[in-house]
Design brief:
The complex is a heterodimer of chains A (about 70) and B (about 525). Chain A is an all-alpha fold. Chain A has one domain. Helix content of chain A is about 80%, strand content about 0%. Chain B folds into three domains: about 375 residues, no CATH class; about 80 residues, no CATH class; about 50 residues. Chain B is globular and about 80 Å long. Classes of the chains: A mainly alpha (about 70), B mainly alpha (about 525). The interface between A and B is large, with 41 and 50 residues.
């Protein structure tokens, strides 16, 4: 079990190490993932209902009132 | 109202920008994965090292594109939670289930086998490697399947029941969701259009190689594979497009009317092959809808119903709830004014349900729930005060549809010509600069065609987020417009910068490799 896991990890490490085109691409991917999951998600895209309400009942009531309002 | 309109418009613009950005990469992944798998299959059968080199060249380009597109779709899910929270709650597990399956099954399948594809050349057997390449292609299509199932439900909501306690739609028929005619057509139409796009991309890049007189043998070899994949793709895309038109005519007739700029329908309705809309035309006036048009008699009736005499309703017919029999008799259906009235009844029933719940009155809740059920299919119409609010942007839908169809026809001719020249008149494809330039210029055209398809699908169904049940204005979160403008601008700047950098990496790779003898790699 341990050996199999080690072989899989080595497979990925060797693959990344021997990449030819990938270095600048990986830098861009890491920048992109950082921007998406750290900057955008944490600071700009909070989950509106999870942030503002504690229970599903409160969320359901809020949405019901939102949908009943004549928007 | 103005603030609300502004918030709705900015939220929609942001979602459109993100979705269109994401869709720049997806169809190339779908199509190029198949082209690469076929190339590797030829290598596996022939053991000709030139096919191995060709496979590796295109596989690297596939990898660059995959990396470029990775995680861009996640932003859409962020937007659901932040900007479209009413929608996200209202759809419940119906939207969540296909997306979860996509994440767990297809994405992991794709991600696992992509690693074998790129890192496993000398570590696994050729048979296992080939299987991994094909499974990557299948995994990419399976990813698309679940996303398109979720999207199709928004266009044609089936297989669920609304629960006013939870304010959520609860799935009660998974089969109806997955096997809805909209989902089946959309899946094949979208995935196979990816084959068309990838074929044009490969042929365009090869045309550049031929223009530069570099790696001519590899270019011709690639053109033949891409030509056949692309031809199969465009033929199937046209066939499924025909199927889509028939489904749309049944479940979204307003979208079909907008696609054709059709205000007043008729039996044996003609189809506009090309035209310019009259910008002053409004529903109910006597102006002609077109300033100029080239029409094919009975074309729309055949396309939408498979019957040259069938009645196709226009925008005004749908608003008035009128259709005609081939004998000219009028059939009264439900008008948009009636839909609005029934939608408002559904809203009133929901209000009564809410009051009864607060009062703890179970029998009043049951009664209100029962009344809500009767008119729930028109729930979304209750938000409108005039029938005009239920009409999509006709010019945008019309032009996007015609751009898509005209370019689709062009690509059919393109593939026939490319294959003819590649097999019979190879000296022409090798030496004719004009043909090579046309092939290269076709690359941006195929992306325009692909994005236009999404504009038809998504703008044509407006104002609905969920057809008939929820318009965009009810779906959005009550957040400041300024925050949506901020994230829109941020996204546009960051991702334009990343896109330029990533395209630069792809072009540099193609340019660098083209100077080597790719067949000896």
């Amino acid at each position: 079990m341990f050996n199999r896991a080690k072989r899989i990890i080595d497979f990925y490490i060797d693959g990344f190490r021997n990449m030819t085109v990938g270095r600048s691409l990986w830098i861009l991917i890491l920048i992109k993932l950082f921007l998406i999951f750290v900057v955008l998600k944490l600071f700009f895209f909070p989950d509106f209902l999870n942030t503002n309400f504690d229970t599903d009942e409160e969320r359901a009531r809020h949405v019901r009132h939102e949908l009943m309002n004549d928007r | 109202m103005n603030d609300l309109a502004s918030l709705v418009d900015w939220s929609r613009a942001q979602f459109a920008l993100t979705a269109m950005y994401h869709w720049l990469f997806v169809p190339l992944t779908l199509g190029l994965s198949v082209i690469v798998a076929i190339m590797e299959s030829i290598y596996y059968k022939t053991r000709d090292p030139r096919w191995l080199a060709t496979t590796k060249f295109w596989m690297t380009i596939f990898g660059i594109n995959f990396a470029m597109g990775v995680a861009t779709g996640i932003i859409l899910e962020f937007e659901f939670g932040t900007n479209w929270s009413n929608y996200s709650w209202f759809v419940g597990d119906i939207f969540g289930a296909p997306l979860a399956i996509e994440g767990l099954l297809a994405f992991f399948m794709e991600a696992t086998f992509i690693a074998v594809m790129f890192f496993g050349w000398k570590k696994v057997s050729p048979r296992f490697h080939l299987s991994a390449t094909w499974l990557t292609a299948i995994g990419a299509s399976l990813s698309a399947l679940w996303i398109l199932v979720a999207n199709s439900w928004m266009q044609y909501p089936v297989g669920m029941e609304f629960n006013p306690h939870e304010m959520r739609n609860v799935m009660d028929d998974f089969g109806a969701l997955v096997l809805s005619p909209v989902a089946i057509n959309k899946f094949f139409h979208s995935v196979l259009s990816g084959w068309t796009l990838a074929g044009v991309f490969v042929i365009g890049v090869c045309a550049w190689l031929l223009l530069k007189k570099r790696n001519i043998e590899m270019a011709i070899r690639s053109i033949k594979v891409a030509g056949w994949v692309g031809l199969a793709g465009i033929l199937a895309t046209l066939a499924t497009g025909d199927g889509s038109a028939k489904v749309v005519s049944k479940v979204q007739p307003m979208k079909l009317a907008a696609m054709e700029g059709l205000y007043k329908g008729s039996c044996g309705q003609s189809i506009v092959a090309a035209g310019i809309l009259n910008p002053d035309k409004q529903p109910g006036d006597n102006q002609s809808p077109y300033l100029f048009d080239i029409s094919i008699p009975n074309g729309l009736s055949i396309l939408a119903k498979g019957d040259s005499d069938a009645f196709i309703p226009g925008v005004e017919d749908l608003i008035n709830g009128i259709s005609l029999t081939p004998q000219g008799d009028t059939i009264r259906g439900i008008s948009y004014a009636e839909r609005i009235a029934r939608g408002k009844s559904a809203h009133e029933a929901l209000r009564r349900f809410d009051s009864a719940q607060l009062a703890g009155d179970e029998s009043a809740m049951l009664l209100a729930h029962s009344d809500l059920k009767k008119d729930f299919q028109y729930f979304g119409y209750g938000y409108f005060n005039s029938v005009e609010e239920a009409i999509p942007n006709i010019p945008m839908t019309f032009y996007a549809f015609h751009i898509m169809v005209i370019l689709g026809g062009y690509f059919l001719l393109f593939y026939i010509a490319v294959l003819f020249f590649a097999y019979k008149k190879r000296n022409i494809i090798e030496g004719n600069k004009y043909l090579q330039m046309i092939a290269m210029l076709s690359i941006p055209l195929v992306w325009i065609c692909s994005e236009a398809g999404w504009v038809v699908a998504e703008v044509g169904r407006q104002p609905w987020v969920i057809e008939g049940l929820m318009p965009a204005r009810a779906a959005i979160s009550n957040i400041p417009t300024s925050s949506v403008i901020t994230t829109f601008t941020l996204f546009a700047i960051i991702f334009t910068g990343l896109l330029i950098a990533e395209i630069n990496i792809m072009l540099k790779y193609i340019s660098k490799k083209s100077k080597e003898n790719i067949d000896t790699i």
